[in-house]
Structures are given as C-alpha cells and as structure tokens.
Amino acid sequence: MMEGCKTRSLLKISIALILSMVFITTTSADYWSASVAANSSSWSNQRQSDNIVFDYSQSVQGTISPVSYKGRSLSPYYSGYQDVNVNDVRLRDRTSALQGSYSSEEQMSLQSDTTNPIYGNVTKLAGQSLIIIQLFEEWPVILKSSKIIKYSGIEINNREFAGNNLDFAGSSLLYNTELSKETNVGMLLRNMNVTVFATNDNDTLLSADFMPNKEMYYDTRTYTTGIADMKYRQTSSSYDFKRGTYRVLNEGDERYSGNYNISRSLHMKSDFKYSAQEYDWQTCFISNIGEAEITGNATTGTVRNA
C-alpha cells in the first residue's frame, strides 16, 4: 500500500467512453470534490473541513427594553444567530425578540481533523464490463451543544437546525409571548466512503452510495405559546440518479398552534463497513498528478499516473 499523503491537487480519470471524469481537488482550506458522469447520469460530492478545536459558553439574563439615544427612543429588540458547518456537520440557530424578559445559557464544543489523506481506487475487472470507483475519507468531526432559552414578553421567534451528512432535526417556534426551551445536541462523524458502480455495456452508472459513518443525538423540551413546527429526516446511502437526491428512509413534520409542552428525543446512526474487496490503495492523490488511466489486463486494475 502506498503511504498516505495530503491531497492538494486535481485528478482527472477518463474511462473508455463511459465516464466523463472523476475529479478530486483540494486547497489550503482542506476541500475536495469528486464527480462521475456517464451519458445519461452523473454523481458528484463536495467536502470541506479543517483542523479545529473550539469551545464556547455564554450566559445572558436581562430585559429587552427601549434605549434613549441622542434624544430618541430606540425600539427594544434582540437578535442573535449561530452557524456551524464543518464537513457537513451543521448547527444553525436564529432568535429574534421584542420587548420582554430574556435569559439564555449555552455551551458548544467542536473538534475536527483533516490530517489523514483522501484515498481513491478505480477498478476494472478483467473480462468484465463492470467498473468500480471507490473513495475513502477520514476527516472526523465531533460537535456537542446545549442551549436554554426563557422569554416572556411581546413576541419571540426561534429557529434551530442540527444536521449530520444528510440527516437532520430541527424546530421553528414563531409568535410566542412566552417561550421556554432546552435543547441538547451531540453529533459525530467518524469517516466516509463512496462506491460507484458503472458498466461499459450501455455507458451507464449503475449505483452510487455515499456512506458516512455518523451518529446524532437530538433532545429538546419546549413550552411554546405560538406556532411550533418540528421536523426530522434520515436518509439512505443510495443516490437516486433521476431525482438527483438520496432516498429518504424516514421523516417527520409536525405543527402545533397554541400552548404546548413538547418533549422530543431522536437518535440516528449509520454504520457502514467498507464492503468492496480489500484492494491496496495504490492511488494517493498528490500534487500535479495530471491525467490517469486504468491499467489494462490486471485482475484488479488500479489508477496509476499516465
């Protein structure tokens, strides 16, 4: 097996007449992308991460009230947002409130790593039309977050979203005169592998599977006096070429209007083994690799420098 190296380049693979290209590109921001195209179908993916350690905590308690400024009275208002997206591990929060009493406590811890290289392998089985494209990434991410909000006043709106590589959960809490909410989120991304099957027979991509090993916990307890929308979704690894999306395994969408106490707890997990044959990863995408081709008559051909 070739020793791993950090990918910071462009790879182009031409396979007979079926596949237009497979790219992998990276920059100093630790980004890579891959795309595979046939005559009538295509698949692509983009990834971005970094080496990060981030810890955050905050506590707020007060009254949203008018402020006098240069002889004018400024309207009482609060707004805040939070936005995290590291290798498709995402956390978003938006809050806006008018005059009233407001308090919040929150903590967040984020760690990610991009030390490991991206590996790839393209295999053409001798005497067969089947082509197998495989990619493997080990850029782990762990994100933990907890937040408590309490409000009483004219109106508060809050939206939150937690997503981990196509799975998500979240809520939208609008037009509340009173709101009490506590949310705890834990998300883990271990690694990710992709397997694409294509055939020479009719220039077709047979299947594409995006397989991140991931886990997500989402727990919320809410007292709402307005309109509350609660959503979640868990997706399959299988790509739908016609729709250009991944199949939905299960999802929920609920709306509550009025005064409610709502408790919700979700646990989603995907655990994929590397299911293809154990080939040596002979392709380490390195600087100036240029164009590559499949070796001709080997039982398991691999990508090599052209």
Estimated share of beta-strand residues: over 45%
Main structural class: mainly beta
Q: How many runs of DSSP E, i.e. beta strands?
A: 20
Rg measurement, Å: 24 Å
Question: What is the chain-wise order of helices and strands?
Answer: EEEEEEEEEEEEEEEEEEEE
Total count of helical runs of at least 4 residues: 0
What proportion of the residues is helical, as a percent range?
under 10%
Could you describe the 3D structure shown?
By secondary structure, this protein is mostly beta strands. The chain has one domain (51-278). 0% of the residues lie in helices and 68% in strands. The protein contains no helices and 20 strands. The strands form four sheets. Strands 4, 7, 8, 9, 10, 11, 12, 13, 14, 15, 16, 17 and 18 form a 13-stranded antiparallel β-sheet that branches. Strands 1-19-20 form a three-stranded mixed β-sheet, with no helix packed on it. A hairpin with a 4-residue loop joins strand 2 (31-37) and strand 3 (42-48). The radius of gyration is 24 Å and the shape is elongated. The protein starts with 10 loop residues before the first strand and ends with a strand. Mean pLDDT is 83; it is low at 1-23 and 275-306.
